[in-house]
């Protein structure tokens, strides 16, 4: 049940958060800039369609992996592209030479990126988000999602971060959050990996 709860929260929650941001933008600009409002609604509809497709795939397969049949870098790049529709500039930086990653580790890193981006879009009021995927160490991969937004005085209540911490710990990795009110938010996870043959 915990695994399924994490999957539903991380995947569907990501899409619904960004859809909500787009709908809010459409409401704000509905009268003053109808073209911009329509663009926001079109983006929201596209993201809702992606979320619905993901739910259908998950129901059909019970657990579909978003990193299956594509590289981790490509999967995270798509997350970044989707999240950029919220209006926050997001930069993805890949450090070192990208390589094949075992599916369990790739999924944890993908979900961490998804949670970090969802939180940045939903809570941060940031002017910039940086995502770094670091392949430079031979025995681990590190992912960092950092924003310059409002930060948080308390991070203990969020189910999403609890789920990411659990995922990382199950693989023997490390999980770290650095934040203070008004000082931005940084989520960093590192997981030991072995290359898939």
Summary tags:
alpha+beta; 52% helix; 5 strands; single chain; five-stranded mixed beta sheet
Query: How many H/I helical runs?
Result: 5
Output the radius of gyration: 17 Å
**What share of residues are in beta strands?**
15-25%
Report helical residue fraction.
40-55%
How many strands, what sense, and barrel or not for the largest sheet? 5 strands, mixed
Shape category = globular
Strand order of the largest sheet: 1-2-3-5-4
Distance between the termini: 31 Å
Ranges where pLDDT stays below 50 over 5 or more residues in a row are none
Structural class: alpha+beta
Average pLDDT metric: 85
Total beta-strand segments: 5
Provide the succession of SSEs.
HHHEHEEHEE
Q: Can you offer a commentary on this structure?
A:
The chain has 197 residues and is α+β, with helices and mostly antiparallel strands. It has 5 helices and 5 strands; from the N terminus they run αααβαββαββ. It has helices spanning 2-29, 34-61, 72-83, 103-124, 159-170; strands spanning 90-95, 129-134, 140-147, 174-179, 185-192. It has a 5-stranded mixed β-sheet with strand order 1-2-3-5-4, covered by helices on one side. A hairpin with a 5-residue loop joins strand 2 and strand 3. Helix 3 packs parallel to helix 4 and helix 4 packs antiparallel against helix 5 (159-170). The longest helix is centred in the first third of the chain and has 28 residues, at 2-29. It is globular, with a radius of gyration of 17 Å.
Structure, briefly:
By secondary structure, the chain is of the alpha+beta class. The chain is 52% helix and 17% strand.
